[in-house]
Amino acid sequence: MRIAILAAGLIGAAVAATSVQAQTAPAAPAAEAPAAGGFSDADLKAFGSAMTEIQKINGEYTPKLAGADGPTKAEVQKEMISKMGAAVQASGLDPQKYNDMSAAVQKDSALRARLTTVLNAEPAA
Asked: N or C end of the chain, less CB within 10 A?
């Protein structure tokens, strides 16, 4: 059950990530304090990092899933979910927080805009 919830959140985030990255916003300095959605800029940067890796994994496994059937498909899905979970944890987020952020980004246009701003901001010198 936990894996299914994680998979749904991760796959949903991969879909949302495409629309978030397609948006453009002027780069502006962002505060580190939690704002829209209650997530800090560091959280949003970690989310963006995980989201990028999840998109790569999704792109790698989509053709494999399309060509698989029955038990093979289940095994491929399990492997994909495992890699996605590892990518989330490598970003410094736990799966639940990632899923919470994914849901919030999908529902909250202000948070999506802030995520875009944070991800497009110039790194501090």
From this structure: C
Residue 29 lies in a domain: yes
| 108: nearest Cα among 35, 53, 43 | 35
In a domain, 125, yes or no: no
User: What confidence tens digit (pLDDT) does each residue in 96-113 have?
Assistant: 999 999 999 999 999 999
Q: Which of 48, 47, 54, 36 is nearest to 110 (CA)?
A: 36
Burial of 97 (C-beta count, 10 Å sphere; 0-12/13-18/19+): middle
pLDDT tens for residues 49-98?
A: 999 999 999 999 999 999 888 889 999 999 999 999 999 999 999 999 99
Q: How many structural domains comprise the chain? A: 1
Domain-located, residue 64: yes
Task: Give the range of the structural domain holding residue 80, as residue numbers without chain letter.
Answer: 2-120
Q: What is the reported pLDDT for 9?
A: 55
